[in-house]
Structure formats: C-alpha cells, structure tokens
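Students often ask why inverse folding is considered easier than folding. One informal answer: many sequences map to the same fold, so there is more than one right answer. In these notes we will look at a single instance of the problem. The structure comes first.
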C-alpha cells in the first residue's frame, strides 16, 4: 500500500510546506507545480523544485526542509484516508501480510506507523532505502521480495499514476484509488472511488481482474 494520498491524506501537508519553502527562500510556486510532484521520488522532487521554484538550494537540502515541515504537521495530526485503517485491520486479522511502499523518508513514515497497531505492516519500503524511486519498479519489487511472495501475487493500492506505473512495471496488479490527481486507465489497473467498504474478498476479486489484464512487466 502507498502512503501519501492512499493511507493518509498528507499531500496538503507537502503542498503547504512547499509554499512555505518558496516564501522563505524567495522563490515562486504554484498548485500546478505541486500536483506534478504527487507520488514522485523525493530527490527527484527536490530537483524539480530547485528548477521551477527558482531557489538556490541543493535537492537534498530541499528534501530535508520539506521533511521538517511535514513531520511537524503529521506529529500534530495524522489525516487518515477513509477506509484505509479499517482495511488494514481486516487484513491483519486474516493473516494477510501487507507492505507499505512510499517514497517518503523513514523519519516522516515513523509518526504514521506509531499510530497503527505494531504488526500492521510486515515490510516497509521508503524512499531513502531504494536506489530508484517510483515510477521505477524497484520499490514494489523490493516490497514483494521482503514479503516473500511473487509480485503477481500482490495487489498494490495507489492513488497516483506514478505509483501505479511503478507497481505494474514490477509485475504487481494495482488497485487505483485516485484522490488529488487523475490516474490513467491501463493494463493491470482496476479502480475504486475509495477504500470504504472494501474488504478482503473484494480485494481478492480486484486482484484477479487486474492481473488478468496485465502485460508482462517491463
């Protein structure tokens, strides 16, 4: 499962922090630029911000300042997406292992994990432990390997086109639950409006439907 926009609605936290960064360093920013970053690898986002915000900071410095802002916000309040925690609880009670696959760094992920039951995720893949972030397949390939299963036996849950591309390229069928940005239709993708009232049996059916429409992974 993806985190930002899927498990938690933290995209507004990132966007607000980006505008604060621009104001602090004399740059310019827009909602359009902010939405272009949804689902991206953080260092790639840092490079984009440096270019389009027009500030004289290295991408890694930009990422650290952004993390300072969003960590402070999520420590104050975690904005859960509807149905996400309920689904994870059902999967945990059924003994279905789950992985969190996010391009956020571990220091941002930890405050979210602390508010979930300890064994909610059997594996956690963050942006600071992979060499290539979404939309590259590495994050989902690593998650499947950490769970000890083949990618095709998984069902990724994503809210962005970037994340869906990563999952499908890794060989994982994907349930797309668009939120802040549209997600394109394509092989290996099925769609839902939200995770509310989606349970284990529905996920199994969706995985079969998505996998039946997949092309071989890139």
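Output (designed amino acids):
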């Amino acid at each position: 499962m993806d985190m930002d926009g899927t498990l938690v609605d933290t995209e507004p936290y990132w966007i607000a922090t980006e505008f604060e960064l621009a104001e602090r360093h004399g740059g310019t920013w827009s909602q359009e630029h902010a939405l272009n970053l949804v689902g991206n690898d953080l260092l790639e986002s840092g490079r984009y911000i440096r270019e389009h915000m027009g500030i004289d900071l290295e991408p890694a410095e930009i990422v650290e300042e952004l993390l300072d802002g969003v960590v402070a916000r999520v420590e104050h309040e975690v904005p859960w997406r509807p149905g996400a925690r309920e689904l994870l609880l059902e999967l945990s009670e059924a003994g279905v292992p789950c992985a969190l696959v996010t391009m956020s760094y571990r220091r941002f992920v930890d405050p979210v994990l602390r508010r979930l039951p300890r064994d909610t995720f059997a594996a956690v893949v963050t942006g600071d432990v992979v060499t290539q972030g979404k939309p590259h397949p590495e994050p989902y390939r690593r998650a499947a390997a950490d769970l000890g299963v083949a990618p095709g036996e998984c069902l990724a849950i994503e809210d962005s086109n970037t994340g869906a591309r990563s999952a499908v390229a890794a060989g994982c069928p994907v349930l797309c639950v668009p939120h802040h940005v549209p997600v394109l239709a394509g092989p290996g993708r099925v769609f839902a409006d939200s995770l509310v009232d989606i349970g284990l049996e529905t996920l199994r059916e969706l995985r079969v439907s998505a996998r039946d429409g997949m092309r071989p992974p890139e």
